[in-house]
Amino acid sequence: MKKHPLEQWGSIVASKQGSLLALTFWALLVVVLSLAWPQINSIKSESGKNLPESEMSELAAAIIAEQFPNDAGTPLLLVWHRESGLTTDDYVAIQKVYGELTTKPLAHQTLIPPFDKMPPQAFEASTSENGTTIVTPVFFEKGVATDALRDSLETLTKTMKKFNVQLDKDLANDVLHVRYSGPVGIATDAVSLFSQADVKLLMATVLLVLVLLIIIYRSPLLAIIPLIVVGLAYGIISPTLGFFANHGWIEKDSQAVSIMTVLLFGAGTDYCLFLISKYREILFDIEDKSTAMKLAVKESGGAIMMSALTVVIGLATLSLAHYGAFQRFAVPFSFGVLVMGIAALVVLPAILVMIGRVAFFPFIPRTEEMANKKGKKQHKPSHKTSHKIGRFVTHKPWIVIVVTLLLLGGLATFVPRIQYTFDLLSSFPENMPSREGFILIEENFSAGELAPVQIVIDTEGKDMDLQQPLSAISYIDSVADVQIGEKNNSIQLYELSLNENPYAKESLAHIPELKTEVTKMLEAKGIKDANEHVWIGGETASQYDTQQITIRDETVIMPTMIALIALLLFIYLRSITATVYLLATVIISYLGALGAGWLILHYGMGAEAISGAIPLYAFVFLVALGEDYNIFMISEVWKKRRTVDHLTAVEEGVVRTGSVITSAGLILAGTFAVLTTLPIQVLVQFGVVTAIGVLLDTFIVRPLLVPAITTVVGKYAFWPGALFKKDA
């Protein structure tokens, strides 16, 4: 009889020579790749584009670059402030800073106004009405990597300190302060936050997983083994991603790398636990550790492979996004999980076989015969709680279904009430320089000065000036003089400031309104197809385009991911019925998590809105990872059904997977919860929603709802597969 492929692999990796060879090969591969290729964290983060070139804000930027080549570049706004009012000495200090920037330009600096040659009194015209604040620009080359800009700002900081300008003291102190804001300040603060997050995340995640594993298995050695496996997997993942980024195949995204670290430890530990629990279970019946591992790989390998493949394909659907940040997540996530799944079936079995039963010390699993010989306990788990849950679910399925659906459905009713924001600054801590600078601008000037809106029009040679009619619009604070295109004098540029936070959702809503208003103005001047002669650029327009692109990506990625996972489930289970209800349960669990997350974030933590990217990120993770647990549990039911009746199979499925999925869920939820300790609100929000979603899957969907539905549908759970035909 031909051996099952997984049994064949188990025979190889479980043998003495095979385990040594597997471990040696993997370790050598880690060493070679680490020496030959750069680590992903050593690659500088590029300021990658998030929007396609076809978006209106990008088209506007392209026209401005072509027609107004004297555009100074990307601005850094220096926000100078003294609480009691700026003095002549303060203006002199500002002059000295600009004098230094003139004689010793910063790296990538393109242009600075000649403030060093102006008399100090000339500054007063640009100072806020209350005399406390003035904003001056420094321009940098466009498209420069954010890490390079951060290096320039570090040099600027040394200059500031040289002239006793304070960057980190409380703004209430009566000294001259400066804060870096504007597009450059915001971008460098974002990268700085994520670079700090990497180290904190890694340390906190490793510590949490270690503590949870010790509590769950009460074995110090067993707690370390999954971490070693994840570390060895990361040893392949990091240089490979570094190689990809170095060759321009992917763009490094600090946020993606940060979250990938969490995902690896969470999902990676889960896959390790799936195999460890099966291996431990078999060691109670089989004395030879190699034979036990061979069977463990055969029985759990399929579920591990399928679970990993589900997550890989689910996360890979992010590559279909038009929004750059979503795209940049796809490869690190899916590749990381793929390597982790392989490591769980290559590295982990090899380590466990080499160490043997000692890995479980002090609660070593022994066969009954071994325990009797040594005069020691067998330490066989009783699964009392899982037995009670399994029996209750299979005997009172309708009660379970109604109660769980009411709970999840009740939480899901809060989803329509969720408020979303695309305001990047709101994700920063209140003491971040760029946010402090923005608040100073907002309090002392027009908030819109932080990021002016740029309107580009094609007049087709007609004589017009829209400055006055634009100034009359209620939400516009001021409009600068018109600029005429250098290569085409029919092109006009108007820069205007909104009277609200340019990143707020209300400002975003003004962009289509503004385009409609300008289109009407052009139509009144006799221009045909006026809608195609107006382009709006600037940060607010970019955020509006981001909002629209995010909605588009959700409508494409969500159904595509569901369809692909449905296909995988059907291929694996050979059941249309099970595929439908397994997907339905994780979707309602996702909606419940989103609703519960909003309750906690809004009512518990005071968040007025959550990031507009959260629904898609949470969907991709929760549906893929939630299906993981369903697959592991349901595959046990399918396997048991071959030898026992339906109710017993469902009950045994709950019993056999109960403790391991609970442990895995706690660890995965814990690793996502680590994100809530970071100072970045978008990661806090993502951490809260995904942690809740994983807990709902772990304690509601997997042990209660799925087995209850499987019980109710009976033999039709297997339709139209072989197990259905067996019962027919």
Description:
- The chain is α+β, with helices and mostly antiparallel strands and 728 residues long.
- It is 63% helix and 7% strand.
- It contains 22 helices and 11 strands.
- The strands form 3 sheets. Strands 6, 7, 8, 9 and 10 form a 5-stranded antiparallel sheet that branches. It has a 4-stranded antiparallel sheet with strand order 2-3-1-4, with helices on both faces. Strands 5-11 form a two-stranded parallel sheet.
- α1 packs across α9, α6 runs parallel beside α8 and α13 packs antiparallel against α21.
- It is elongated.
- The chain starts with a helix and ends with a helix.
- The model has no long low-confidence stretch (mean pLDDT 88).
List descriptors.
five-stranded antiparallel sheet; alpha+beta; 728 residues
In short:
With about 725 residues, the protein is of the alpha+beta class.
Strand content: 5-15%
**Number of β-strand runs:** 11
Q: What is the alpha-carbon Rg in Å?
A: 30 Å
Helix content, binned percent: 55-70%
* First and last CA, distance: 28 Å
Q: Main beta sheet: strand number and arrangement?
A: 5 strands, antiparallel
Q: What's the structural blueprint in terms of helices and strands?
A:
Elements: H1 5-14, H2 16-36, H3 56-67, E1 74-81, H4 88-103, E2 109-111, E3 133-140, H5 146-162, E4 177-181, H6 182-217, H7 220-246, H8 254-283, H9 289-316, H10 324-355, H11 368-374, H12 384-395, H13 397-412, E5 420-421, H14 433-444, E6 453-458, H15 467-471, E7 476-479, E8 483-484, E9 491-498, H16 505-524, E10 534-537, H17 539-573, H18 576-604, E11 610-611, H19 614-641, H20 646-673, H21 681-713, H22 722-727
Parallel strand pairs: 5-11
Antiparallel strand pairs: 1-3, 1-4, 2-3, 6-9, 6-10, 7-9, 8-9
Helix pairs in contact: 1-2, 1-9, 2-7, 2-10, 5-6, 6-7, 6-8, 6-14, 6-20, 7-8, 7-10, 8-9, 8-10, 8-20, 9-10, 9-17, 9-19, 12-20, 12-21, 13-18, 13-21, 16-17, 17-18, 17-19, 18-19, 18-21, 19-20, 19-21, 20-21
